[in-house]
Amino acid sequence: MWSLRRPMRGRLWITLAVWCGITAIDARGQTPNWLDPYREPAARLIGEATGDTFAWRRLAILTDTIGHRLSGSPQLERAVEWAVAEMKRDGLENVHAEKVLVPHWVRGNESAEIVEPAHHALVMLGLGNSVGTRTEGVQGEILTVRSFNELESASAQVTGRIVFFNVPYMNYEETVAYRTEGPSRAARLGAVAALVRSIGPPGLRTPHTGALQYAADAPRIPAAAVTTEDADRLQRMADRGGRVVVRLRMEAHFEADAESANVVGELRGREKPNEVVVVGGHLDSWDVGAGASDDGGGCVVTWEALRLMKKLNLRPRRTVRVVLWTNEENGTRGGNGYRDQHANEAANHILSVESDTGVFAPARLGFSGSEAARKTMTEIALLLAPLGMQELASGGGGADIGPISALGKVPMMAYSGDSNRYFTIHHTPADTVDRIDPQEVSKAAASLAAMIYVVADMPQALPK
Ligand SMILES: [Zn+2]
Fold first, then answer.
1. How far is ligand 1, taken at its centre, from the CA of residue 316, in Å?
2. What are phi and psi of 463, to 5 degrees?
3. What does the alpha-carbon distance between residue 168 and residue 419 come to, in Å, rounded to a whole number?
4. How many whole angstroms from 289 Cα to the centroid of ligand 1?
5. SS3 content of the chain, % helix, strand, coil (to 5)
6. What is the DSSP string of 99-165?
7. What pairing do the DSSP bridges indicate for beta strands 392-394 and 120-122?
8. Closest CA to 282 of 255, 321, 322, 309
9. 412-416 and 364-368 strand pairing
10. Which letter, b or e, does each residue of 278-308 get, where b requires 16 or more Cβ atoms within 10 Å of its Cβ?
11. Checking DSSP bridges between strand 162-165 and strand 193-197, what pairing results, if any?
12. DSSP code of 429?
């Protein structure tokens, strides 16, 4: 078999190589003439980004020397000061912090344990914005459900129980409702606390925090996430019948709103400085891990677009503005604040760009905008062929660019890493820089810099 197949494999390889070669030539041939002046600067930006690990090293400094950055924490304010100083060091213009008041939720000490049928400590994280428990904790019999429908069917049994949402992870969008809405749905039926299976693929006993949203018409009950392993154990215990009792202790509470800021830096446009391409990520994070993928990396790779242009002496026609938004995780006050403070120039925003789903391979660029805008963006993306990223996917939105983009009807682009790898560490103690490949950070910076440069410089503004 082997001797017969080898020549075939060889021929297939040659055929593929020829086919790819032809495709590459065709792609170059199809690139519209208007892009010709951008081949060289795009290649220089890509070369500068991928020839260095600067972006990863900057992310490592942020996450090692400051760490995680929850809204209201001293670390977030240190990160704001650090980013302002670093942007100035890069030679960016109009560098400043725009004040925003943010909620200040504090986790405090917390624990959970199974007390019946046998004692087991649970690896848990309280959900962001949750209330705490009394000092002695809340203890109750678990009611395990696998969907909101199951909860409704069991509504007569909910009073006095701790409702446990053990919903297998499908994808973030479909599963996250159990974290955000689950606690209030359980409370409305009389539950005293809620537990959720962590919203993410199975990890290594990593609990995932994240915000809950209390409904106005339900009592506020404490809520926490448990690991997938502990969730499976609770499920096995429930399936055997008999009582499963859990005790939960949480000191979580809100303090008064705190001052924070969006960090802003620019490369002013040489011809049309009032037209703006805004790019960025969010500087705040949860209070576990180091906020490396969520979203220190997004901050750094978008900011790189400006640093690289500055370094290569490429000043586009329009202004490129980097904004490191605050408070994305538990309030979106940064994104809303930016919209409010820049409402008078919202319509002058040509494109908004966010990176907030990591840079893990295989990554992609997504775009949301009119058909005319997509056509232009698809043509520009042909310049990313050396990175293998010339396909422009759909889905260009982001929580921080959403508000200004809605107000100014601004097309949006997003850089998105592989969602399975990202959501395995998302909002966990495992969101650290060591998991991120420096080359993947450089590639993200390279693709963003080339796209952003062309959009900011091309003679005609991107159609809306
Ligand atoms: Zn994020």
1. 29
2. -65, 150
3. 16
4. 13
5. 45, 25, 35
6. EEEEEEEE--SEEEEEEESS-EEEPEEEPBT-----TT-EEEEEEEESSHHHHHHTGGG-TT-EEEE
7. unpaired
8. 322
9. antiparallel
10. bbbbbbbbbbbbbbbbbbbbbbbbbbbbbbb
11. parallel
12. T
pLDDT at 75: 98
Q: What are phi and psi of 337, to 5 degrees?
A: -65, -40
- Catalogue the active-site residues: 328
User: Counting every residue, how long is the chain?
Assistant: 464
Closest CA to 447 of 371, 406, 388: 388
What would the two tokens of residue 190 be?
């009389």
- Closest to 337 (Cα-Cα) out of 103, 127, 106: 103
Collect all residues with Cβ–Cβ distance below 8 Å to 217 and sequence separation of at least 6.
Answer: 188
Residue 420: its pLDDT value, please? 96
What pLDDT shows up at residue 12? 38
- In our burial notation (b when 16+ CB lie closer than 10 A, e otherwise), range 14-39 reads eeeeeeeeeeeeeeeeebeeebeebe
Residues near ion ligand 1 (Cβ under 5 Å): 294-295, 356
Place of tokens 């242009």: 309
Helix (H, G, I), strand (E, B) or coil at 224: strand
Closest of 238, 234, 314 to residue 269, by C-alpha: 314
Contact predicate 171/419, CB 8 Å: yes
Amino acid residing at 345: E
Name the DSSP class of 200. S
* Cα 427 to averaged position of ligand 1 atoms, centre (Å): 9
CB 261 within 8 A of CB 326: yes
**Torsion of the alpha carbons at 337, 342, 344 and 350, rounded to the nearest 10:** -120
Q: Name the DSSP class of 296.
A: I
Which residues of the chain carry a pLDDT beneath 50? Answer: 1-28
How many other C-beta atoms are found inside a 10 Å radius of the C-beta of residue 407?
15
- Ligand 1: distance of its center to the CA of 351 in Å? 20
β-pairing verdict for 110-116 and 245-250: antiparallel
| φ/ψ (deg, to 5) at 149 | -60, -45
pTM > 0.90 = yes
Q: Which tens digits make up the pLDDT trace of 48-68?
A: 999 999 999 999 999 999 999
> On the CB side of 464, how many CA atoms lie within 13 Å of its CA?
12
